[in-house]
Design brief:
- The chain has one domain: Immunoglobulin-like.
- By secondary structure, the chain is mostly beta strands.
- The strands form 2 sheets. A 4-stranded mixed beta sheet has the order 1-7-6-3, with no helix packed on it. Strands 2-5-4 form a 3-stranded antiparallel beta sheet, with no helix packed on it.
- The protein contains no helices and 7 strands.
Length: 103
Protein backbone atom coordinates (compact mmCIF):
# COMPACT_ATOMS: atom_id res chain seq x y z
CA UNK A 1 0.00 0.00 0.00
CA UNK A 2 1.23 3.50 -0.78
CA UNK A 3 2.20 6.02 1.92
CA UNK A 4 1.50 9.04 -0.28
CA UNK A 5 -1.71 10.28 1.38
CA UNK A 6 -1.62 11.45 5.01
CA UNK A 7 -4.39 14.08 5.11
CA UNK A 8 -7.11 15.30 2.79
CA UNK A 9 -9.72 18.04 3.18
CA UNK A 10 -13.17 17.70 1.69
CA UNK A 11 -14.51 21.23 1.43
CA UNK A 12 -18.28 20.67 1.54
CA UNK A 13 -20.65 18.36 3.37
CA UNK A 14 -22.08 15.86 0.90
CA UNK A 15 -19.00 15.86 -1.36
CA UNK A 16 -17.33 12.57 -2.15
CA UNK A 17 -13.73 11.49 -2.59
CA UNK A 18 -12.59 8.28 -4.29
CA UNK A 19 -9.40 6.62 -3.07
CA UNK A 20 -7.76 3.40 -4.25
CA UNK A 21 -5.56 1.15 -2.13
CA UNK A 22 -3.51 -1.78 -3.34
CA UNK A 23 -1.08 -4.38 -2.07
CA UNK A 24 2.01 -4.28 -4.25
CA UNK A 25 3.62 -7.53 -3.07
CA UNK A 26 3.58 -10.16 -5.83
CA UNK A 27 3.67 -13.11 -3.41
CA UNK A 28 0.37 -12.16 -1.71
CA UNK A 29 -2.62 -13.95 -3.20
CA UNK A 30 -5.39 -12.05 -1.37
CA UNK A 31 -4.91 -8.40 -2.34
CA UNK A 32 -8.25 -7.18 -1.01
CA UNK A 33 -8.44 -4.31 1.46
CA UNK A 34 -11.13 -3.44 3.96
CA UNK A 35 -11.94 0.27 4.29
CA UNK A 36 -13.19 1.86 7.51
CA UNK A 37 -13.83 5.26 9.08
CA UNK A 38 -13.21 5.85 12.75
CA UNK A 39 -16.22 8.21 12.85
CA UNK A 40 -18.78 7.54 10.07
CA UNK A 41 -20.88 10.48 11.29
CA UNK A 42 -18.09 12.78 10.02
CA UNK A 43 -17.05 10.77 6.95
CA UNK A 44 -18.64 7.51 5.82
CA UNK A 45 -16.89 4.94 3.64
CA UNK A 46 -18.25 2.49 1.10
CA UNK A 47 -15.99 0.36 -1.08
CA UNK A 48 -15.85 -1.87 -4.12
CA UNK A 49 -12.74 -3.54 -5.61
CA UNK A 50 -10.38 -1.76 -3.18
CA UNK A 51 -11.74 1.66 -4.20
CA UNK A 52 -13.28 3.63 -1.35
CA UNK A 53 -15.90 6.31 -1.75
CA UNK A 54 -15.63 8.66 1.20
CA UNK A 55 -18.61 10.94 1.81
CA UNK A 56 -18.39 14.05 4.00
CA UNK A 57 -21.26 13.87 6.50
CA UNK A 58 -20.50 16.67 8.99
CA UNK A 59 -17.76 19.09 10.01
CA UNK A 60 -14.81 17.60 11.87
CA UNK A 61 -11.93 15.22 11.32
CA UNK A 62 -11.68 11.45 11.34
CA UNK A 63 -9.26 8.72 10.37
CA UNK A 64 -9.92 6.51 7.35
CA UNK A 65 -8.05 3.21 7.18
CA UNK A 66 -7.37 0.60 4.50
CA UNK A 67 -6.55 -2.77 6.08
CA UNK A 68 -5.27 -5.88 4.31
CA UNK A 69 -7.95 -8.57 4.30
CA UNK A 70 -5.19 -11.22 4.38
CA UNK A 71 -3.22 -9.64 7.23
CA UNK A 72 -5.28 -7.44 9.56
CA UNK A 73 -2.05 -6.09 11.11
CA UNK A 74 -1.12 -4.41 7.82
CA UNK A 75 -2.92 -1.10 7.27
CA UNK A 76 -2.50 2.51 6.21
CA UNK A 77 -4.52 5.41 7.54
CA UNK A 78 -5.01 9.06 6.72
CA UNK A 79 -6.98 11.96 8.15
CA UNK A 80 -10.08 13.35 6.46
CA UNK A 81 -11.03 16.90 7.44
CA UNK A 82 -14.33 18.61 6.72
CA UNK A 83 -14.37 22.32 7.68
CA UNK A 84 -17.40 24.01 9.16
CA UNK A 85 -19.54 25.61 6.49
CA UNK A 86 -19.20 29.37 6.20
CA UNK A 87 -22.51 31.06 6.90
CA UNK A 88 -23.43 33.47 4.13
CA UNK A 89 -25.78 36.19 5.28
CA UNK A 90 -27.95 37.32 2.38
CA UNK A 91 -28.17 41.02 1.60
CA UNK A 92 -31.80 42.10 1.97
CA UNK A 93 -31.51 45.58 0.49
CA UNK A 94 -29.22 48.40 -0.56
CA UNK A 95 -30.02 52.02 0.17
CA UNK A 96 -28.72 55.10 -1.66
CA UNK A 97 -28.83 58.63 -0.31
CA UNK A 98 -27.90 62.01 -1.71
CA UNK A 99 -24.89 63.43 0.20
CA UNK A 100 -24.05 66.62 -1.68
CA UNK A 101 -23.09 68.13 -4.98
CA UNK A 102 -25.24 69.44 -7.80
CA UNK A 103 -28.96 69.16 -7.19
Amino acid sequence: MSKKLTMYTIQNIGEQLKIRAWIAQNDVTNKNVIWSSRDPEIASVTSYNNIATITARSAGATIVTATSEADMKSSKSFVIRIPRPIEIIPVTGIEIEFIGGVE
